[in-house]
Specification:
The structure is a homodimer of 110-residue chains. Chain A is mainly alpha-helical and 110 residues long. The first copy, chain A, contains five helices and two strands; from the N terminus they run ααααββα. The first copy, chain A, is globular, with a radius of gyration of 17 Å. The model of chain A has no long low-confidence stretch (mean pLDDT 90).
DNA sequence: GAAAATTATCGTAATATTGCGATGAATAAG
DNA sequence: CTTATTCATCGCAATATTACGATAATTTTC
């Protein structure tokens, strides 16, 4: 149904999935990398760096905002985006914890 | 268009996005956790552990297989699934590298 | 104030995702 | 051989995603 049975899964699992969903598109990976690289925030420069239309980039930024990974501060006529450090740390920690469980134990199948 | 401009982004960004997409659903997080927890692989036990129908679980397993994060070995009438250790390590490393760039520098906005 | 620049949002189109029941294919059990 | 078990796949319905152009809302510049 294109609709996820959110309530059927744990809060942690939903949260990891939420972060993963935000990263599930190369454009959003590229945007986040840009925001990190320039440290200070960027506005519509992102549009010029990506091979996508302005409206599409805006939509991706909105997705990232929805996942709380970035913030956008209005700066005159333009908007300044940046990584939300707290949420970023949370996403990083949860994802790492998820991947780090039993690093080698997964090797053998049946 | 529901279609991603894959060719417009770097191989690394596409790869991270591919892994993230596989993790972008709580059911798949739960499945992976199960596979890790039981070390050895499982088959349709997954269906009994999740509040989803057999066909839906099968579809999620297929997604995970598409991302190469798991493998499925036929074991008589049933199928044994397990984490693909090599790919798992790659996903872990790429994701970690992505998150670890400039841990604190993202704090300040404009 | 009028024109230009910067973003967000709306509308549309194409495709993807999520979920389920039903059906198939394969092996195991009787 | 027939029947049950196990799993994948098909078909369907509802919704979501990706992308773009057009438009609207701000703000700056002239």
């Amino acid at each position: 149904m294109g609709v996820t049975k959110t309530e059927a899964f744990s809060a942690i699992d939903n949260r990891i999935a939420r972060y993963a969903k935000a990263l599930a598109h190369p454009a959003r990976i590229a945007i986040l990398k840009l925001l990190i690289k320039r440290q200070a925030c960027i506005c519509g420069d992102i549009v010029h760096e990506l091979p996508l239309s302005q409206s599409t980039v805006s939509q991706h930024l909105r997705e990232l905002k929805k996942a709380r990974l970035i913030r956008g501060d209005i700066e005159g006529a333009s908007v300044c985006y940046c990584i939300d450090a707290a949420e970023w740390a949370k996403a990083s920690a949860l994802t790492r914890a998820f991947f780090e469980v039993q690093p080698g134990a997964a090797a053998k199948c049946c």
